[in-house]
Structure formats: C-alpha cells, structure tokens
C-alpha cells in the first residue's frame, strides 16, 4: 500500500514536471530567462516530495465537497461546545480525551466566561495527569499558573476560586504528593519560591516517611528537591527506604527505565557519608567482608558511570530486559545505520571506538577489548542494586531483599533443584512463588529437557513436600500444560497414568488424564497440541466428543482447526448460553456458531438478564458491530429487553450510539406514536405494572455477511446471506426518549409531546425523561434551550419540566441561556420574577428561584450567580444571603 501511495505521489510530481517544462521548444535565450523561475518551481517540487502520502489523500477527501459533507454529517457540531464541558475530571475528561490539554489551553486563552476548570479538585486531577517533562507541558503549566493567580490580567472574572499564589504551601504539598516534577519545577520558577520556603513546607506538610516506600516517581522528585537544595535535614531517603523490589527490579521493565531507576537510586544518597554516620552511631561493625562488599559496590558504580546511555540503541533502550536477555530484540551500534539481529551475544560498541572507526572508514579493525557485552552490563546493574540495598537497609529488613528467579536463570548457571532451594524453599514460597518458578523453568529454552523431566518427576513424587501444598499441584499442572511442549506434556501424562495404576482408585491423588486435558485445554496455543491429543488421547477425554462444550475454551486462533478435528469423526459442538456471557470472547464464538449450524448446536434459552449482560460487557469492549451481527442472526424465543440503551451514566454510554442507530433505523415517529397510544389506553385503570410496562418494537434487520470463504460456508451450511429478518425488543418510555435524543431526533420528541401530552404530562409519568436526574447527564446547552423554549410556549402542564430544565442550566453553568431569557422580547423574562399575590403572571415562588441561584453558586459559576441575583426581585435580605454564600467560596 505504501508503495502504491508513493507511486501516486511520483506520478503527481511527474505531471508537475511536464507542466513546468511545456515550453521546451522555445528558443535557448527564452529558456535562460525562464531558468530562475524553473529552478524555483523545481524547489517546490522537492518540498512536495517530503509530504506524507496519507496527507495527500487527506486533502483529496477534504476538498471533495460530497465526501466532506457526508463525513461531517455524523458530527453534532451545533449541539456540543465549550458550554457542555463542565469540569475536567481525571477519568472522563483528562484521560478520556486525547486532546484534553489542548482543550484546556484553548479555553483559558479564549477568555471565555464558561471556564472548564471549576474547582481545586479539577486542578489536582490535572497535576496527577500531566507529568511529562517536555516544552508543551511546561508551557501549559505556565499558562495555568498565570491564569489562576491574583496577578492575572484576564478581563474575564474567573468562575473558579483558585488562586495559586494565595496558598503556595498547599500547592507545593500537592505537587510533591502527586510526584509531579514538571509542575513543581514550573511552579517554583513562576512564583520565584526560594529553597528555604520549600524546606519549610516539607517540614510541616510532608512527613519523612513519605519517601519510605520508594517508587520511581518518588526517587525522581526526591533527587529534584535535593538538586535545588530544598530537602530539610529530617528528610532522608535512607534508611527509611522500603522499595518493592519485585516491581523495581522486574525484568519486564524497559531497559531505559531500569537505567533511570538505578541512577535515581544511586544519586539519592552518598554511600560513604552514610557509612561514616552509621560507624559514628555504632550501627555498623567494620568487618572485612563488609569492607570487601562495599569496595565491590563502589567499583561497579564507577564502571557503570563510564557507560553512557547514548551508547545503547533505541531498540535496546525501548526493549524489556527480559527480551534483551532472550535475544528477541534487534540490536545495532549507536552510530552505524545498519541493524543486525543477534542470537548468541549482545554487544554495544563504545562511542570512542565508533568515532575512530568512522574516521578510518574501516569497520573491520574494531578492537575486541572495546566491545561491551550487554548481558554483563545488565548483570552489573542488578548486582549494584542488590549490594546497594545490602548496605542501606536496616538489618531487620534485609531478609525481604531476595534475588528473583530470572536473575538466576540468566546470570547464574545452577541446577533446577538449587534454584528451587534459593528462590522458593528458602523463603517458604507462596503459591505465587511456585507458579512463577514452574512456568519459568518449563518454558526456558536454555534448560535441558532432562532437567525438566526430573522436575516433573520430583513434584509428582512429593520431593518438594516441605513447601508444596496439595492445592499447589494445580499450579504445577497449569505450568506443564502452558508450556505447550508436546514432549513435556506427554511425559507428564504418562507419569500420571502410571501413578494412578499403582494407587487404589478410591484414593487416587491426581485427576484423570481426560479431566486434566479438558481442564487445561484453554492453554493450547498451537495446532500440533490439538493433533497430539486427537491422535493419542481422543478416547480418554471429552475434548472431541459429540455435543461437547469445550469449544468455549479453545483459543479463537485455533477454533477452526478444532472444528475440523471434531467434525472429521462426525461430531458437533454445543454452545449453551447460560453462564458464559461474561467470557470476553463468548460473543465472537456465538456469532461464529450461528453462522455454522451444521457444526454447532445452540440453546438460546437464556434469561433476559443473560442477554443484557452479554450486550453490556461487549459494548464496554468496543464490540458494537459484533453485537449487531448477533442481533441480526440470533433466533430469540422472546423479545429482548434492551433497557441498557438508556444508560446515561455509564462510562461507555457514547458507544451505545452505533447500536441505537441500528435498532431505530426504520422505526418512525408515527409508529412510536401508535405504540404510545396503546400504552396510554392501559393507564386508565391505574394499574402500576401496566402504566410502567415496556413498549415492544419490531425492527427489520438483514442477516450479516458471512465472514467465511464461499467454499467453507457451503461445507458447514451457513445461513442465507441478505435475508431479511424481524427482531423484537422492549424498552421503557424513558429509554425510548433517551434513544431519540441520542439520535438527534429531538424534533420527534417534541412531535410526541404535541400529539400525546396525556402520556408525558400526567403525574405518574413525571419521572420520564425530563426529570433532572435523567436529562442532566445527556443534555447539551443547545438542546436544553430548545426544551426550555418548547415548555415556555406550552405552559399548560409543563411548569415542572420547565423548572427542572432551568435548574439544570444553572447547575451546568449555561449562562447564555439565562441571558437569552432576560433579553427576550417574547416576555419570557417573567420566568425569573417571584410569584406574589400581586404578580400571578410569574410561575415560581422565592424559594424555587433561590434554589436555581444556589445551584449556580455550588457549581462556582459566579458570573451567572450575580446575573440572577441582580435580575430576580429578591428582597434585600435575600440578596445579601446569596452574596455571602459567594464570598465564602471565594
């Protein structure tokens, strides 16, 4: 595809070349006169070649009016804007939007009355989220501090009460506790805070124990504070350190992070100074071995200090340590452009050697002494850290710092038994320790097969009985089967069978072979294992039996081969719906089974709650299209309850839109009206169940296109492609209206209000849709104002609805809606006047209007609060009370 795009760009360039040179037949003198202009044009062509191919296609689409309109017709641009962004919480806004920082920057710079940042909690979430140390983040914090400080020159009155410089201590404390070096550094520079002030904050607000449980972030901020001389003497990283070595020294860490962690740790303390202090306090006895280890550590630190990060390639730095040691990452020198993959020895070449080699243009004369073995470097890092902890932790805590199994696997050549003794038995190993040990040993390609056989035999013979408990056998079984090594599995099964033959059946210790194979079939990751079971253990297990349910466990990548093996002996798979809807892959399996009725038998007898959770869980996993495919082809025994469609509060409510469009594609407002009329007739007898009964809809669907090849489809007897099917579902009136709202069918909602006011405006339907708890979560300022205008124009029975909408507008801070009401020439401003005996044209009493203002104060939108206080005819005492509330929050 890339080549095709490049060809197209070259063709475009060639076309331009021909256009520029179309006067080649002119006289030579004319050519010379045009030569500067030709050169200028050719220079433009060269810059054009630097454009990414995808950008060419973007502009082709962007300039095509028809395609452009079609794409942007899916965006509700007039409905959503800054006025609909309320607060910047960490989950839904900061991490839920890829451009959240840009939105905040734009909102601040726009001097808009509607500020997204509403309170200190929003700022704390920002500090917790944006920590990257780059120019963009630094500029962002400078802008933030400038905007929210007492010296701000913004012409707009801030709706928020935040003033960074009015409580310097509190914000320093928050930035340290959120380990945000970037924000703290910019904060100190912006407000020109001296080191003594920071020390004072540390002494009062940050306990020395804060650095006791050390993470990478805490090491980073500790060293930063130390570098600017802002650490009080009471705050020492050591001996309070209690680092989680399992995380800190994990071989799954990226190499570059591991190097940084090492440097942060070593830089955080002066070993010699600490040793001298401990000697003075009599805490450290000078023993020859201690001195030897201390000298060894210093020597390793010196050696590692000579190694520069620039000597490693980007591939190496971005790889995990485990991958580097397993030789699965391409490695290359830091200067040469060629990359070579190694399988025996990982090396880097010193920059000095590279420099000399490049100057001499001779890559064959590299001094072998200048080559550094990467494995040795990694080993030095680990040994240095282990020695470091030996000298810095309290004696009573030294027992928790043990070397991990992977350290012995990669850096020490020891027997399996000896490694078990070191990393498991010595520490009275937990189930997790056993799990890690067995899986690592059995999957390690560098350990001889005979040693693995011996391990299996020792476990089955209870050689590890000291720490190996009965239920730990299942951990071992899983480790064997997850190895996906046919030789190991075969050896294990034969030994199990042999042990069972020598035992009394009633007290057999281990499960049957057939049960073991089925219990762990979800671990099979290659066809050869399936073939092995099929050829050798087919009669001893249920894996390939007729109507077996093991298809639920087989990995999707292998399911086709499993179907082939099962079908080759005339058997079918069975897929029961009950209890399996929570499996992440169940919907994919279900769709596959529906399309292959000759291979699967399916029972759709699950309850409505089963189907609800199936849809719920898969919407959360971005599988809207799979759900649609399922609904298009499934044969339900009863209408499906889809009340989940009305979910407005779930974090994935927006993902439901695709499904809602699919279901309501051919359901007109007239058909909805007919259904509601039937519901309305049922309400006359005031029966609760009937009044709140669900509405049943029928939508027309087309069976999904089969994903299998035509030949395979013919073999398994797939459903007819393109066949029209009917699908019945039920929803409540509330959910119906929420769905119409989400589909931008607000006109249809108003149509239904007009046609069936008795349905929506009766007291027992007062909780439907327009209640504050429901409309609050989904309404934009644009549509909320539409509803307000509609209720104003139809005041017969809509006063309650109108009031709820005004409360929502106030709480969300939609200032413009109230400005429009106040400036309206349609005499709607009376809505914001107090109803009295002499003024019956108003709708709301003093308490109701007071509550509207209270909501704006609670949301910290003081501009709106002051607007309403000044306009509503409160008493002088009432105005003063509301203004005092504002002052208390400022």
How would you characterize the largest beta sheet?
Answer: 3 strands, mixed
Mean pLDDT: 75
How far from one another are the termini? 59 Å
Q: Biggest sheet, strands in spatial order?
A: 5-7-6
* Number of helical segments with 4 or more residues: 46
Give me the secondary-structure category: mainly alpha
Q: Unreliable runs, pLDDT <50, ≥5 residues?
A: 1-32, 36-48, 329-371, 685-690, 704-721
Number of E strands:
7
Apparent shape:
flat
Strand content: under 5%
The structural domain count equals 5
Q: Gyration radius, to the nearest Å? A: 36 Å
Kindly state the percentage of residues in helix.
40-55%
Family: Belongs to the UPF0746 family.
InterPro entries: UPF0746_actin_org
Protein name: UPF0746 protein DDB_G0280811
Organism: Dictyostelium discoideum
List the helices and strands and how they pair.
Blueprint lengths: L1 H19 L7 H22 L3 H10 L2 H8 L17 H5 L5 H10 L10 H10 L5 H13 L20 H10 L3 H10 L4 H11 L10 H12 L17 H4 L6 H13 L3 H10 L7 H18 L8 H4 L3 H5 L21 E3 L1 H10 L10 E3 H19 L12 H7 L4 H8 L7 H13 L5 H12 L11 H11 L3 H16 L11 H7 L7 H10 L22 H10 L4 E4 L9 H9 L5 E4 L4 H13 L3 H10 L6 E2 L14 H8 L5 H14 L5 H4 L3 E8 L7 H7 L7 E8 L1 H10 L3 H10 L1 H5 L10 H4 L5 H13 L5 H14 L2 H8 L23 H13 L3 H10 L4 H14 L1
Parallel strand pairs: 3-4, 5-7
Antiparallel strand pairs: 1-2, 6-7
Write up this protein:
With 890 residues, this protein is mainly alpha-helical. The protein folds into five domains: 2-72, no CATH class; 86-237, no CATH class; 245-401, no CATH class; 408-626, no CATH class; 770-890, no CATH class. Helix content is 54%, strand content 4%. The chain has 46 helices and seven strands. Helix 9 packs across helix 11 (195-205). The protein is flat and about 100 Å long. The two termini are 59 Å apart.
């Amino acid at each position: 595809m890339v080549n095709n795009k490049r060809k197209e760009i070259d063709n475009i360039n060639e076309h331009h070349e021909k256009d520029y040179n179309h006067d080649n037949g002119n006289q030579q003198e004319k050519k010379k006169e045009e030569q500067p202009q030709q050169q200028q044009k050719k220079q433009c062509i060269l810059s054009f070649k630097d454009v990414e191919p995808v950008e060419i296609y973007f502009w082709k689409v962007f300039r095509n009016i028809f395609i452009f309109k079609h794409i942007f017709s899916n965006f509700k641009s007039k409905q959503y804007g800054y006025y609909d962004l309320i607060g910047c919480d960490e989950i839904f806004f900061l991490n839920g939007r890829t451009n959240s920082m840009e939105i905040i920057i734009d909102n601040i710079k726009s001097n808009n009355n509607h500020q997204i940042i509403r309170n200190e909690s929003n700022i704390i979430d920002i500090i917790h989220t944006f920590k990257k140390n780059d120019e963009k983040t630094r500029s962002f914090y400078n802008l933030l501090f400038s905007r929210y400080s007492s010296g701000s020159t913004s012409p707009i009155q801030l709706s928020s009460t935040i003033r960074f410089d009015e409580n310097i201590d509190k914000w320093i404390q928050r930035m340290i506790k959120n380990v945000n070096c970037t924000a703290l550094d910019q904060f100190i520079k912006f407000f020109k805070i001296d080191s003594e002030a920071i020390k004072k904050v540390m002494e009062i607000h940050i306990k020395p124990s804060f650095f006791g449980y050390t993470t990478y972030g805490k090491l980073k901020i500790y060293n930063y504070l130390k570098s600017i001389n802002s650490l009080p003497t009471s705050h020492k990283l050591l001996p309070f350190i209690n680092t989680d070595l399992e995380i800190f020294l994990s071989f799954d860490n990226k190499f570059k992070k591991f190097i940084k962690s090492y440097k942060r740790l070593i830089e955080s303390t002066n070993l010699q100074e600490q040793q001298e202090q401990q000697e003075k306090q009599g805490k450290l006895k000078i023993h020859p071995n201690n001195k030897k280890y201390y000298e060894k550590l210093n020597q390793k630190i010196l050696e590692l200090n000579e190694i520069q990060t620039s000597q490693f390639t980007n591939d190496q730095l971005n790889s995990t340590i485990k991958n580097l040691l397993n030789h699965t990452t391409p490695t290359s020198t830091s200067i040469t452009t060629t990359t070579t993959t190694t399988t025996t020895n990982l090396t880097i070449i010193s920059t000095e050697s590279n420099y000399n080699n490049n100057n001499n243009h001779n890559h064959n004369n590299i001094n072998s002494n200048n080559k550094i073995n990467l494995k040795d470097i990694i080993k030095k890092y680990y040994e240095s850290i282990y020695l470091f902890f030996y000298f810095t932790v309290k004696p009573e805590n030294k027992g928790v710092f043990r070397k991990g199994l992977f350290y012995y696997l990669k850096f020490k050549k020891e027997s399996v038994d000896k490694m078990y003794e070191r990393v498991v038995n010595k520490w009275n190993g937990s189930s997790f320790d056993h799990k890690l040990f067995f899986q690592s040993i059995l999957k390690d390609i560098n350990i001889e097969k005979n040693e693995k056989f011996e391990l299996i035999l020792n476990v089955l013979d209870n050689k590890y009985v000291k720490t190996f408990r009965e239920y730990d056998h299942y951990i071992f079984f899983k480790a064997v089967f997850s190895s996906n090594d046919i030789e190991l599995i075969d050896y294990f099964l034969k030994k199990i069978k042999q042990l069972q033959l020598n035992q009394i059946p009633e007290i057999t210790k281990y499960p049957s072979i057939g049960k073991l194979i089925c219990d762990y079939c979800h671990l099979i990751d290659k066809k050869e294992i399936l073939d092995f079971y099929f050829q050798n253990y087919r009669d001893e297990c249920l894996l390939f039996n007729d109507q077996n349910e093991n298809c639920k466990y087989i990995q999707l990548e292998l399911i086709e081969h499993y179907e082939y093996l099962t079908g080759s002996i005339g058997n079918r798979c069975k897929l029961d719906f009950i209890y399996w809807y929570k499996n992440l892959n169940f919907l994919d399996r279900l769709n596959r089974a529906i399309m292959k009725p000759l291979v699967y038998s399916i029972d759709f007898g699950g309850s409505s709650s089963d189907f609800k959770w199936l849809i719920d869980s898969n919407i959360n996993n971005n599988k809207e299209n799979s759900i649609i495919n399922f609904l298009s082809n499934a044969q339900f025994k009863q209408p499906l309850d889809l009340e989940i469609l009305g979910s407005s509060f779930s974090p994935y409510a927006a993902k439901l839109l695709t499904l809602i469009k699919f279901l309501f594609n051919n359901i007109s407002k007239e058909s909805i009206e007919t259904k509601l009329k039937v519901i309305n007739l049922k309400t006359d007898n005031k029966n609760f169940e009937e009044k709140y009964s669900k509405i049943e809809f029928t939508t027309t669907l087309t069976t999904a296109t089969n994903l299998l090849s035509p030949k395979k489809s013919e073999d398994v007897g797939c459903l007819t492609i393109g066949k029209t099917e009917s699908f019945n579902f039920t929803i409540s009136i509330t959910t119906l209206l929420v769905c119409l709202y989400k589909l931008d069918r607000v006109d249809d909602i108003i149509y239904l209000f007009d046609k069936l006011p008795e349905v929506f405006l009766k007291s027992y339907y007062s909780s439907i849709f327009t209640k504050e708890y429901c409309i609050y979560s989904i309404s934009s300022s644009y549509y909320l104002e539409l509803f307000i205008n509609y209720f104003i124009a139809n005041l017969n029975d809509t006063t309650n609805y109108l009031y709820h909408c005004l409360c929502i507008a106030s709480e969300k801070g939609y200032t413009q809606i109230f400005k429009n009401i106040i400036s309206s020439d349609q005499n709607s401003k009376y809505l914001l006047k107090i109803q009295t005996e002499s003024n019956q044209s108003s709708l709301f009493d003093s308490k109701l209007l007071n509550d509207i203002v209270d909501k704006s104060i609670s949301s910290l939108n003081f501009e709106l609060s002051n607007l309403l206080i000044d306009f509503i005819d409160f008493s002088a005492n009432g105005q003063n009370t509301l203004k005092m509330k504002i002052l208390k929050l400022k």
